[in-house]
Amino acid sequence: MWTFVVHRLVRAVFVCLGISLITFTLLHVVGDPVLLLVPQSASDADVRLLKEKLGLDRPLWAQYAVFLRDAVRGDFGESLFTQESALVLILERMPATLELTFAGMAVGLLIAIPLGVVSAIRRGSLTDRLCTVGAVTGQAMPIFWLGIMLIIVFAVQLRVLPASGRGTLAHLVLPAITLGAYLAPLTMRLTRSGMLDVLTQDYIRTARAKGVGERVLLFKHALRNAAIPIVTILGVQFGRLLGGAVVTETVFAWPGVASLAVKAINTYDYPVVQGAVVLLAFLIVLANLLADIAVTWLDPRVRLDEDHA
Q1: What digits encode the pLDDT tens for the residues 23-61?
Q2: Residue 191 maps to which CATH number?
Q3: Which residues contact 229 (CB under 8 A, 6 or more apart)?
Q4: What is the largest CA-CA distance in the chain?
């Protein structure tokens, strides 16, 4: 187990290195922040002087080497516009992003798992067909459109929930529902598929023959085994939720890392974008690692050794 964990952490380092290299290269190719920092009347000499001050006059590989050297120490540099530490700016926003992500995951699971179980045990019924249609519709629904519709209905027309910002539980409801609806369709279909497979197994029929109650049978025996693919995919879904948070935070003006990164991209604020992308990438890799460990708890037959790493 520990060998597996160490190998995955080492792999996470290389993944983050690759992502940082791609992000670093793309940022330096698509725009020049110096042109936004100097006034329009600035001369070419002024532009060159500012580039030298920021270290942007050196070759790209040399700039990346400096970035890596400082990033190892937890220093992603200073924001080019606010002169504040990029890491401090990101960490200030990180609790808001994690709050929204975990709330969205909780909403998605609360919707998906009960509907998936009901759909499986009532296979072929009207309920099953409605759940399937709902899942397909949910997967096809653009996340930004759903967020805007929720704002129009609950914030503008009914005036029962705030349309934007963060501060109270009421502010969290609409963004969490938006993200939860983004997660629920796939999770519901996996739950249904897993339950249908498990309910046909011999040990389920044996448990029924021994007189095990239907509720215990479904939730203690069947759902636990059906949850293995769900837990596995949740690591990937965590990354999707962080990606969905970019749109959700923008729609609801939620003050998280995603909205900070979007603003930094628009202004070519290299240190903030690079720091945000690397930290979010590490969180996604860590979520996948925790999902793999959780699978071994659900199914002791699974052995996480070096061959799986």
Answers
A1: 888 877 776 777 667 776 677 777 778 778 777 778 888
A2: 1.10.3720.10
A3: 190, 193, 194
A4: 87
Output 161 or 226, whichever has higher pLDDT.
161
Residues 141-179 as b or e (16 or more Cβ within 10 Å = b): eebeebbeebbeebbeeeeebbbeebeeeebbbbbbbbb
The pTM (predicted TM-score) of the whole model is: 0.77
Residue type (1 letter), 271: P
Domain boundary among 30, 46, 72: 72
Q: Judge whether 307 lies within some domain.
A: no
Domain that includes residue 136, residue range: 89-298
Based on the structure, what is the number of domains in the chain? 2
Residue with tokens 């965590």: 238
